[in-house]
Amino acid sequence: MLRNRAEEIITLVDKTKAEFTMHDEVISGNVYIGGGETDAMRFIARTAQKLQADHPNIRYHLFSGNAYDVTEKLDKGLLDFGILIEPANIEKYNYIKLPVTDQLGLLMRKDSPLAKKEKISPNDIKTIPLITSQQVLVRNEISGWSGLDFDKLNIVATYNLVYNASLMVDEGFGYALCLDKLVNTSESSTLCFKPLAPKLESHLDIVWKKNQVFSKAAEKFLQILKDEITITESGVAIPFYPLPPQPLITGSAKRHILGL
Questions:
Q1: Of residues 158, 110, 148, 111, the one with CA closest to residue 127
Q2: What is the pTM of this model?
Q3: How far is CA 103 from CA 4, 29, 122, 157, 201, in A?
Q4: Residues 6+ apart with CB under 8 A from 205
Q5: Residue of 45, 47, 104, 95 whose CA lies nearest to 71
């Protein structure tokens, strides 16, 4: 425990030092973002890509984890922003609701009996072996959707990130209740995803500590993110501008830039 705390302190010191050594006229530095597994990270990536076009010296550091993992690092100052999948406790944070949603459903093998169905009803999950999220709020949401006592379902495993859960599904161990678009379900895959009916969707929020003092890089990122949200909610298409190829710097030119 002491070693983990020491590592957290070192990380925080390095982060603070980098923020104070940034050049005043050029926005550079690091933006630390944590979040659960969600296709909504594409929205964050588009924002970072737009910002990168004008400020190529900003670096992004991504941390993947469940809501508990993300908020723990956020509270310790190790992250600038957290992407939380609802339901989540966000009252103590400043937050913005992202204009995207994730759909919940059942991940299964294509040769399973339920794979023939278009949608999954509460009756379908009563007895099958389920692999579910560890988060209590998600379990409550499933109980509300199904009208069933969650503790009486046939829970054979829990997960905090879905990749390992998908391997267990692939081996025939059970069915995973999870979000769509996180696991390969293409024609070449042995797995498929079936949405829940009635439809169950999760909204997402980007959160940060109240009274947070941002670095210039994080402050600029938040500004561009707000602009992107406004554009998306207005219904205006967001064009994609790929970055031009970056020249490869080698030899004496590289040593000159590095001051060697």
A1: 148
A2: 0.77
A3: 35, 35, 16, 21, 4
A4: 83, 84, 86, 88, 90, 95, 96, 97, 98
A5: 95
Residue 174: other Cβ atoms inside 10 A: 21
Phi, psi of 173 (to 5 degrees): -75, -30
Please give the Cα distance from 42 to 137 (Å, whole number): 24
Helices (H), ranges, the chain = 2-20, 41-54, 67-75, 136-146, 162-170, 216-234, 251-258
The helix (run of H) or strand (run of E) holding residue 157 is: strand 155-159
Asked if residue 25 lies in contact with residue 216, where contact means CB atoms within 8 angstroms, the answer is no
**Residue 22: its pLDDT value, please?**
46
Measured in degrees and rounded to the nearest 5, phi and psi for residue 156 equal -105, -15
Question: Each residue of 174-233: pLDDT tens digit?
Answer: 999 999 999 999 999 999 999 999 999 999 999 999 999 999 999 999 999 999 999 998
Across the range 115-120, mean pLDDT stands at 97
- What CA–CA distance (Å, rounded) separates 123 from 120? 8
The dihedral over CA atoms of 92, 95, 99, 104, expressed in degrees to the nearest 10, equals: -20
- Which residue carries 């988060």 as its tokens? 135
Who contacts 84 (Cβ-Cβ below 8 Å, separation ≥6)?
35, 36, 67, 70, 71, 90, 95, 204, 205, 206, 207
pLDDT number for residue 134: 87
Which residue has 């926005």 as its token pair? 27
Contact 160, 205 (CB under 8 A): no
- pLDDT for 220 equals 96
